[in-house]
Design brief:
Chain lengths: ~240, ~325, ~750
């Protein structure tokens, strides 16, 4: 029966039972280990040579990389760095500046985990080239709080437990911050139109919140709490 | 993504000059589709000419009738004059993508948006005439649920995924472009192509041309009171249309004086037939009239293994969209 | 006995917010791909573009000339490895560049290592493979007749209880119908990610995983290393849902690459790579036959499942499993068979079995109820199982009847007009449906460590994982409750193989396994402190009996006198104090009592008459999951499970191309998971009746039960709204539009 349960994704007793038996195998695998480590080293040596000529010679099928010096304004600071033109704002933040609060969920503008504010507007940083972001003011989740003082949107997400794994959370919060500004401007959503509010400032119903937050997927399904968090922090906004 | 040179231009002349000088260059606007496709290795320009800071193309003027090509989708949708005079366009824009994407995407870029056909977007599929002319069409025998039922060819059954384009087609917009030899205007109906034997070509825009504006006829504001953009999709938001309908009515009492009708999700371009609109003129605004227009619009529709449902869905949606348009502002 | 979860009385909420909430809202929670050891290089996985065949040759010259490229690895130059045996969940069929054979489209067949991510990705597009292609088997529907029994031993046996065929003769009404469920892909928002580096023969891996010690074991086996040479670290996981319970190809590949280049290597899958090489929920076709007597009581039940499987490794989605135990019946027969296909390996996906089985079974019950002209809830109550009918064993606890009653009341089920199409709102048809939810309660052995520091902080650690499920919170909460200290003094650590071993975060077992281990460690701490102070002249407890001392509100207090001393003071004098605790399943469970969680789910939908679009308007669910250990995280997770149920019902399907064997909609724009606007108000309540036969804390797992039943309730509501019975999930607008109304019932 235990093996059956095992197939359901439940208790995994196999490893505990097998650990000792496996240990016995290691002695006979000593040769395997040696051969892996030696052959890995051998493959690695040839790599160094390959790399040396890669940088100096051309190949008809290979396009040359372009780098350029960039100046980016992020969370009020100026960052100067030289980047491959292909680098997106998201990869710049995560891989070059180690501002890893902005998340990569799909890298194609289909999940919203990478949402940051560019000149105060929410955008998918995975589809925006760093080069194109030059000259703009960028705000990431790291720039929303002031030391230990949380932004009201962060506070509201915390209080409403508006997440589980937390991976979509920075994007959700950046989206919420932008949503608050959009409401101040009286921006409409398709729900405003569907519910007959074509002009003026639409009332912020839960359905409005849901539509306006639909660009941020939460695979854990914490949507009811996200709506509660947004509702609380936007209280009084809308018509 | 292949390596590319990046340059930023600040005015339309420089943009046209730069693109004319390099047949492998592409304009970069919001990047929501181009960067996406570059990441998928579907597009591989040698140079990106960033036009997002080009002066003078990010304004909406003339009561919403003159739209700069660099106006972001969210700004266009929320422009007070557009909401008032062309609510059909606002509604279509707000039905598409997400707030984040609409903040990036531009009017010109949306016009140039390429298909979502799975077989086009994934280079691991060997057969796609649009991506690799002459390689075949994997969608014909594949999972063709999102594909075209009208205007398709044996070479390509892809659809145009834009919502904005459908509204522009219904409102009979014009696309203003500028090239090395000067400016010209392309009616929206002629801007997007049917696939025919050359599905790799989406539009009639020439490589060396820059879209500068989209103009709406002022008469299109006559539909402001009675218009609706209906989008049928697999989830309630942030999904491409299975079918969509841009519907506008100009009423005189209970009688239809003018009608605007275009569909999305059914063809390689927004699907509009003047005959369908004309058939409604002078008729009572009722289900029978709407249904007759739908029959004309859908005439000749042909489904495949997974998308035959679109024919009935499209007809129903035309009727429904006009019913909602009729209710109009009093909703 | 029964109570609303909104007013818990048995236990105060000791942790009002999630332990790791602050890190998460500040963007400071660090996930695997966010570790950057110095000089980290980037790897990109190259995948096959044919479903079956052999790689004849590869041209890597262009890639090797591309800027930043350090190494290209394929089956022609990769270091050779021993072949570990497949041992789920940790060790699966993986592709480690050891053979030129291609087993499925999207199989990892190469690796490019470069200085930047952009360079690695571009160079991978320059590598060209020549294949000898073979004809693949990619058609599930047309090969059902060839379905075979599962090969592996650890798969559900064919269950047959009772007198079998004769029983059907006694049935007054027999109902038989076929249902199907699609391929589904987990799609946690954080893609799989591994950062690996070596120091000599010691391997360190940051990995996004549901099972650090499983990864450790797989890596040790793959590279023939002693277990202690492998260190796996994973403080945060951006969702798993089953796909991160196994070490798929990319995990050893990252380690292999790091060894080859002699530098740390980061290998992150992109979204497209999440469809195929890292598991999915198999397709199923399920035939259900129900026989009832004149009172609507089951005399026989039969549930036969045929599912897809990869040719290279069987994975059984045990969709008929709940049918063996959910309703009282003396003659239950279930079976699982498989159709071989040239596709990647399927795996555990949230509630494997029940998630795909309950939609079928609960739809069938609804259909039968209509046939009998009986309230669907009444049919379930008439067949209420007081004992596990399959195992013929008592349940550790079961309060499903109360759950039905509470959820039905909150929903307003008594106002049901069963006539399909009887409710309307404009052009929207409104429908109500209900279903039963169930999932087994699992628990495994687990360990925990406690360290009382001289500064008064208490570190609590366990080699478990928090995949968004609240494990940090439960660990910290247990320390707070047991020792009476403020949460600010608790430092919870997990996701590290240097900590005591704990099971995979799967099967809804983490809280039930790790909670008791932490509790045991707390008991050990009391014992240790008491032993220290009775011999300590500086303590007020000097000379006392250890048995008279206990920990209360952060003090070691005497039950015999007013003597008390802050526990921090003891550590100040004696230095850091470390204790360990272990816990394993109770005797009752070991002896084979049946342990399950239960729930009742009610849904209201609206169906757009012209488009066929379905919108869920509300869901009301009440669960019997034993004690609700933490209301905040527990309720959230149950709601999340319901959201998955909505996705199962209406959206999710990985569409396999029958010619090429790739998932055609392999991205998050076309593989639809529910967005915010798809999710209505969800009313979740929990009976909160402790099941102390199962664990000393009385809680059973809640991670998976939420998804079960929901799709059935929604499908039943769609029928009630439209008179259309859609038996093939997901219920997309096209199916609603094109399916004719049921003639008999309508």
């Amino acid at each position: 029966m235990s093996t059956y349960e095992h197939a359901t994704g439940a208790p995994c007793t196999a490893d505990t039972a097998d650990d000792l038996a496996e240990q016995d195998l290691y002695a006979s695998w000593e040769i395997s280990r040696r051969s892996f480590l030696v052959s890995a080293a051998a493959v690695g040596t040839s790599a160094a040579a390959g790399m040396a000529h890669a940088e100096s010679s051309a190949h008809p099928k290979v396009a040359e990389a372009h780098t350029m010096p960039m100046e980016l304004r992020i969370n009020g600071e100026t960052h100067r760095l030289t980047l491959d033109t292909r680098t997106t704002l998201l990869d710049t933040l995560r891989e070059h500046l180690h501002l890893t609060g902005s998340k990569k969920g799909c890298d194609h503008g289909q999940c919203g985990a990478c949402t940051v504010l560019v000149d105060g507007r929410r955008v998918n940083s995975c589809l925006l080239l760093a080069a194109s972001a030059m000259g703009s003011e960028i705000t990431t989740i790291e720039g929303l709080s002031n030391g230990d003082d949380l932004h009201p949107a962060q506070e509201s997400f915390l209080e409403h437990d508006a997440f589980q794994c937390g991976y979509c959370t920075p994007g959700q919060i950046c989206s919420t911050v932008a949503l608050m500004d959009e409401l101040k401007r009286g921006d409409a959503s398709v729900v405003s139109f569907e519910s007959g509010h074509r002009e003026g400032v639409p009332p912020l119903t839960d359905e409005e919140i849901r539509e306006r937050m639909s660009g941020n997927l939460c695979r854990c399904g914490a949507y009811p709490n996200i709506v509660a968090a947004v509702r609380a922090v936007t209280k009084g906004a809308g018509a | 993504m292949n390596p590319f040179a990046y340059e930023r231009v600040m005015d339309d002349k420089a943009a046209v000059h730069a693109i004319a000088a390099n047949k492998d260059a592409k304009f970069l606007g919001g990047g929501t589709n181009l960067i996406d496709l570059m990441k998928d290795n579907v597009e591989h320009p040698s140079t990106l000419i960033d036009i997002t800071r080009v002066q003078g193309l990010a304004e909406v003027s003339n009561g919403g009738a003159m739209i700069g090509a660099l106006v972001r989708n969210s700004d266009l949708a929320n422009h007070a004059d557009v909401r008032k005079n062309y609510p059909l366009l606002s509604m279509a824009l707000l039905s598409g993508a997400s707030p984040q994407l609409r903040n990036l995407a531009t009017t010109g870029g949306n016009l140039m948006q390429r298909t979502r056909c799975y077989y086009f977007m994934d280079t691991a599929f060997p057969a796609c005439n649009k991506r690799k002319p002459g390689s075949g069409c994997a969608a014909l025998t594949g999972f063709n649920r999102i594909h075209a039922i009208l205007g398709q060819s044996e070479e390509c059954i892809a659809t145009n995924p834009s919502d904005m384009n459908v509204a522009l087609a219904a409102l009979q917009a014009e696309v203003h472009v500028e090239g090395p030899k000067g400016k010209r205007t392309i009616p929206i109906a002629e801007f997007h192509r049917l696939p025919g034997k050359t599905p790799q070509i989406d539009t009639t825009l020439k490589h060396e041309e820059l879209i500068t504006h989209v103009a709406l006829p002022s008469s299109a504001s006559e539909f402001a009171t009675h218009s609706y953009y209906l989008k049928v999709r697999d989830r309630q938001s942030y999904a491409f249309a299975l079918v969509s309908v841009a519907a506008g009515l100009m009423m005189e009492g209970d009688t239809i004086k003018r009608a605007a009708l275009a569909m999305g999700g059914v063809a390689h371009k927004p699907w509009r037939k003047k005959e369908a609109e004309d058939a409604m003129v002078g008729k009572q605004a009722n289900a029978q009239t709407f249904s007759a227009a739908a029959e004309i619009l859908l005439h000749g529709a042909k489904g495949y293994e997974h998308n035959s449902f679109k024919i009935e869905m499209a007809k129903n949606s035309v009727v429904r969209a006009f019913s909602l348009a009729l209710v109009g502002r009093t909703a | 006995m029964m109570q609303d979860a909104s007013t818990p009385t048995q236990h105060p909420q000791s942790l009002p917010t999630r332990y790791d909430a602050r890190q998460k809202v500040m963007g400071k929670a660090t996930y695997a791909a966010e570790f950057n050891p110095p000089e980290t290089l980037y790897a990109w996985m190259i995948q096959s573009t044919i479903p079956k065949g052999t790689i004849l040759s590869v041209d890597t010259s262009a890639a090797e000339h591309a800027s930043g490229v350090v190494k290209v690895l394929t089956c022609f130059n990769a270091p050779k490895l021993p072949k570990p045996k497949i041992q789920p969940p940790a060790t699966r069929f993986v592709s480690l560049l050891q053979t030129p054979e291609v087993h499925y489209n999207g199989e990892p067949i190469g690796l490019v290592i470069a200085k930047t991510l952009a360079e690695a990705q571009y160079a991978s597009s320059l590598v060209t493979f020549k294949y000898q292609a073979e004809k693949p088997q990619l058609d599930f529907e047309h090969h059902l007749a060839e379905a075979r029994m599962p090969k592996r031993a650890n798969t559900p046996p064919k269950e047959d209880h009772g007198e079998k065929e004769e029983a059907w003769k006694r049935a007054v009404t027999v109902f038989e119908q076929t249902y199907s469920t699609p391929f589904q892909t987990h799609n946690p928002l954080e893609p799989h990610a591994t950062v690996a580096f070596w120091v000599g023969e010691k391997l360190t891996v940051y990995n996004s995983t549901q099972y650090v010690s499983g990864d450790k074991q797989t890596l040790a086996k793959t590279f023939a290393l002693p277990l202690e040479n492998v260190h796996v670290i994973c403080p945060y996981v951006g969702g798993g849902f089953g796909c991160k319970g196994s070490s798929w190809s990319h995990v050893p590949l990252a380690a292999m690459a790091a060894k080859v280049v002699g530098k740390p290597v980061k290998l992150v899958l992109d979204r497209q790579q999440m469809f195929g090489p890292v598991g999915y929920r198999p397709r199923t076709v399920q035939k259900i036959k129900l026989g009832v007597d004149g009172d609507g009581k089951f005399v026989a039940i039969k549930h036969d499942v045929i599912m897809s499987t990869a040719r290279v490794e069987d994975f059984v989605e045990p969709s008929a499993k709940q049918t063996d135990m959910l309703y009282a019946c003396k003659n239950i027969s279930t079976s699982h068979k498989m159709v071989d296909m040239d596709i990647g390996v399927g795996t555990f996906q949230r509630a494997p079995g029940e998630a795909s089985g309950t939609p079928a079974l609960e739809s069938a019950l609804d259909e039968l109820a209509y046939k009998l002209k009986m309230d669907p809830l009444e049919l379930r109550l008439r067949n209420y199982a007081e004992i596990d009918p399959g195992k013929q064993k008592r349940f550790t606890a079961k309060h499903l009847r109360e759950a039905y009653q509470q959820a039905a009341e909150r929903f307003g089920w008594s106002k049901l007009n069963p006539e399909p199409g009887s409710m309307r709102d404009g052009n929207k048809l409104i429908g109500w449906g209900m279903a039963t939810a169930t999932y087994p309660a699992n628990r495994s052995a687990a360990g925990a460590v406690l360290r009382l520091m001289p500064d008064g902080k208490i570190m609590v650690g366990s080699g478990t994982q928090d995949i968004g499920t609240g494990t940090y919170t439960v660990m910290a909460q247990t320390v707070v409750e047991e020792l009476g200290v403020d949460v600010s003094r608790v430092d919870a650590k997990l996701g590290d193989t240097d900590l005591p071993k704990a099971p995979v975060s799967g099967g809804s077992q983490s809280t039930a396994s790790v909670g008791p281990a932490v509790k045991a460690a707390c008991a050990q701490l009391k014992l240790k402190l008491a032993t220290l102070v009775v011999d300590d002249a500086a303590s007020p407890h000097h000379g006392a009996q250890t048995g008279d001392l206990e920990i209360k509100d952060g003090f070691l207090v005497s039950t015999k006198s007013s003597a008390h001393e802050p526990i921090a003071e003891i550590a100040k004098r004696h230095g850091e104090i470390e204790v360990k605790g272990e816990a394993e399943p109770n005797e009752d469970v070991k002896k084979g009592m049946s342990a399950h969680s239960w729930g009742a789910v009610f849904a209201e939908v609206e169906v757009d008459e012209s488009s066929g679009m379905v919108k869920v308007r509300r869901v009301v669910a009440t669960y019997d999951i034993g004690r609700l250990i933490n209301k905040t995280t527990g309720t959230n997770q149950l709601q999340g499970g319901i959201v998955w149920g909505i996705g199962f019902a209406l959206h999710e399907e990985s569409a396999l191309d029958k010619v090429y064997g790739r998932i055609s909609n392999e991205n998050l724009a076309e593989y639809h998971v529910p967005v915010n606007r798809d999710v209505p108000e969800i009313d979740v309540t929990v009976l909160d009746i402790p099941d102390t036969k199962f664990t000393p804390q009385g809680g059973r797992g809640i991670g998976e039960i939420g998804i079960t039943g929901v799709a059935g309730a929604i499908a039943n509501a769609v029928f009630h709204a439209t008179g259309k019975r859609i038996r093939h999930f997901p219920i997309t607008p096209d199916k609603v539009l094109m399916t004719p109304k049921e003639s008999a019932e309508a």
